[in-house]
Fold this sequence. Notes:
mainly alpha; MetI-like fold
Amino acid sequence: MKSMLRRLAMGPTLGIALILLLLLLWEMAGLLKWVSPLSLPRMSAVAVTLWELLVSGELLRELAASLWRMFAGYFIGVALGVLLGLLMGSFRPVYNLFEPITEILRPIPSPAYVPIAILFLGIDDEMKIFMVAFSAFFPVLLNTYSGVRSVDPVQIQTASTFGVKGAKLLWQVVLPSAAPFIFTGMRVSLAVALIVMVIAEMVAASNGIGYFVLAAQRGFKTREMFAGIVTLAVLGYFLNRLFLLIENRVLAWHHGATQQQKN
């Protein structure tokens, strides 16, 4: 009995049970009118509305527009963050040049840049892609820099001894060693990109899941509003799981080496 309880506690069953319990409480709150149905419709009603929106294709169209903007900005931000992080971690003059401006811009919440982005880029996709790229840039930059600075100097000296220098050293030695840090930054940036994408669409857009949720709220369509919010929750969860799957495949060598060290 104890071993079975221990397995349940260590596995995903406990977390799934908590989610089901919260969904049940949500349904009961609407059924017993603990909360006004106008503010919180029943979970079953939201599920039906969500299914209808999926079948009609309306929700999928909104999601497609949002995902295009999010991933376009995300990959731009990741590429620039990795590149500048490698340079700042490897060359002191580059660090001295960019560190002050990085620490000035980084603490400012990304949504605060939305009005400025609208002034320069308008309200089209370019503005939203820029905002996502800007917000995804800093977590990747900082983690890449930390990863580069944590590379074992013996590895670099050994590679230099065998004639590996310059860009080849960065590509073959520094980048693989910093990869676990980079993936951590990319995972953080993925969640930030989703958040900023929704905010940008709520501020200035005519489509996308953020616009859909805000338009439903303004039209007092609470079922549609909650259906959009639930969709965002599910989307965020599956994006995170997909990222972890890719990370485990790409960094299989790192996880294997770490496991050997533990043993």
